[in-house]
Design brief:
Radius of gyration: 20 Å
Strand order of the largest sheet: 2-1-6-5-4-3
Structural class: alpha+beta
Mean pLDDT: 91
Strand content: 35-45%
Number of helices: 4
Number of strands: 6
Largest sheet: 6 strands, mixed
Order of helices and strands: HHHEEHEEEE
Distance between the termini: 74 Å
């Protein structure tokens, strides 16, 4: 008699943790996406979503073109700008447009290479048109051209935005979570 036995479950070897840890931004509370649910996609909401995406794209292109004046125009006067690498705890934090302008000017000068932010997956997770507030996420891959081409960073952005008196949606809080950063971080960006 040929008796069929259930196949034995093969034990998978324990995975070795990587750096950064998988899903670090979510697990450490920096990214909190809501499940997909019905949302407002009427004309005013679509316009707001497009303006929010424009703020992300304008930030990236202006940074790459060393137009710090344009970068800073994407932020509220009282903005909080944080940068972390592979963990929720930022290694640097700037407050207000004046400090943001000063620090980014020094960072771009110190880098001295050509960067290209390829920003995608812009997700407006919360949009309150009546209050003029939103929260949004985006991904970015940053290439670096300096005597060759390399990958400079992979990034998740988590932002809270406000619609200001001129109708523009600006970043009131902007978190840059780099999974990794190639090369030496600019000293001007450190605390």
């Amino acid at each position: 008699m040929n008796e069929t036995k259930p196949q034995e479950q093969k034990q998978k070897p324990a995975l070795t943790p990587t750096l950064p840890l998988q899903a670090w931004a979510h697990r450490q509370g920096k990214v909190d996406m809501r499940p997909l649910e019905p949302a407002d996609f009427g004309p005013e909401a679509l316009a707001a979503r497009a303006r929010i995406a424009d703020a992300f794209h304008r930030f990236g292109i202006a940074h790459d073109e060393a137009r710090i004046d344009v970068v800073v125009s994407c932020f509220t006067e009282d903005t909080v700008f944080e940068v972390a690498q592979g963990q929720a705890e930022p290694f640097t934090r700037f407050e207000g447009r004046a400090e943001l302008f000063d620090r980014l000017t020094r960072i771009v000068a110190e880098q001295g290479d050509q960067r290209r932010h390829l920003i995608s997956n812009v997700l407006v997770d919360e949009l309150d048109l009546a209050a003029g507030t939103a929260s949004a996420l985006a991904f970015s891959v940053v290439t670096v051209a300096a005597d060759g081409l390399s990958l400079g960073a992979s990034v998740i952005y988590s932002a809270r935005l406000r619609r200001e008196h001129d109708g523009c949606w600006r970043f009131g809080h902007f978190f840059i979570g780099m999974d990794s950063y190639a090369g030496t971080k600019p000293a001007a960006g450190e605390r």
